[in-house]
Amino acid sequence: MRIVFLTQWFDPEPTFKGIVFAHELLRRDFEVEVITGFPNYPGGKLYKGYRIKLLQKDFIDGIQITRLPLYPNHDQSVIRRVLNYISFAASALFYGLFILKRADVMYAYHPPLTVGIVASIIRFFRGIPVVYDIQDMWPDTLRASGMINSPGTINLISKVCNWVYHNVDYIVVLSPGFKRLLIERGVPQNKIDVIYNWANEKALVYREAVLPNNFPDESAFKIVFAGNMGKAQGLDAVLEAAALLKLANSRAVFVMIGGGLDVSRLQCRAAEMLLNNVVFFPTVSMEKVSNYLFSADLLLVHLKKDPLFRITIPSKTQAYMCVGKPLLMAVEGDASELVSKSNGGIVVQSDSPRELAQAIARLASLDKCELTRMGEQAQQYYSEHLSLEIGVSKFVKIFRKFQ
């Protein structure tokens, strides 16, 4: 069975459904072609070793990767970001209509929405069924992130989204909340399936810890947050919780790893608040971040209060559960339900410094064995419900419907 991946972002760019997913399908006797752009995400600059061409075809372990030209950009400018999306969409549409070899099914990865538009048009003219994987609920995410605030623009994007949803053959979403929202918007229930994202399991394995000299020592209770630090994460509440714990002479230390638009401001604020129990580290590869995760006592997920985030499951949730450490989940809704069902951590309200501090104080007082058991329960739940093997098997069942 021949499957085409249509995705603007693909390895070596960070992506949830990249080369690992393609390899798994190849292992299950699928012929796979990936249609993607030249790698530039998230920095907006072309990766070393690449230059824009009209067409570049590579084969990696039996997978054909077709790279198409685009305008590389990923900054805060809405116009330049739109140019990035439209340029890839134009290239993919031309390739899909006039060059693409016939396929049994197309897997289209959203965001951006332009990928869904292209997939729908190719479906119409070429008759290739489309399975649409929604990772961000547009326009809700655009509003929540502050990228677009114009009601008229939001309304237009919403209409285009609904057009795409009704013109693809099947939709996969990452949470039950996403499914409920699509049903409310008129998408038939029997057209939607929930498949949780999996973690990068090969990267998240225990290695002998190689950590920076300023990483907290064994006497500290280490709370690690790894990932993007932007407005959506609402990390001012974490700094305020750190201040409360400092006043209580707690041994808790927050370890903040990653980049993002809010990092510099958060670092300045932590310095102004004299928070010697908060340390920042730059973005590292998934292989290296595993050193930090395995050296943590507790792993933190936090998003600001927003109706959208009640139906969102941050991808770090699966990574944290995969490594077998207890979670502190400060995101209400679907993400907190995963942690509650697993008995692998504690759930608190988002944007509540006092609740955060109280939960950390309680966990820091637990015996090591209790924390270990909590982490093992999170890991077991991941293996049984969220793993790569479980997720890919569900996708294969959907793809086979179009054989």
Question: Which descriptors would you attach to this protein?
Answer:
alpha/beta; 8-stranded mixed β-sheet
User: What structural category arises from helix and sheet content?
Assistant: alpha/beta
Low-confidence stretches: none
Termini, distance in Å?
Answer: 7 Å
SSE order, as H and E?
A: EHEEEHEHEHHEHEEHEHEHEHEHEHHH
Helix amount, in percent?
40-55%
Radius of gyration from the alpha-carbon trace, in angstroms:
22 Å
Please state the overall shape, judged from the principal axes of the Cα atoms: globular
Describe the structure.
- The structure is a single chain.
- The protein has 14 helices and 14 strands.
- The chain has helices at about 20-25, 80-100, 115-125, 140-145, 150-165, 175-185, 235-245, 265-270, 285-295, 315-325, 335-340, 355-365, 370-385, 390-400, and strands spanning about 1-5, 30-35, 55-60, 65-70, 105-110, 130-135, 170-175, 190-195, 220-225, 250-255, 280, 300, 325-330, 345.
- An 8-stranded mixed β-sheet has the order 3-4-2-1-5-6-7-8, with helices on both faces.
- Helix 10 links the parallel strand 12 (about 300) and strand 13.
- Helix 3 (about 115-125) runs parallel beside helix 5, helix 7 crosses helix 12 (about 355-365) and helix 10 (about 315-325) packs across helix 13 (about 370-385).
- The relative contact order is 0.10.
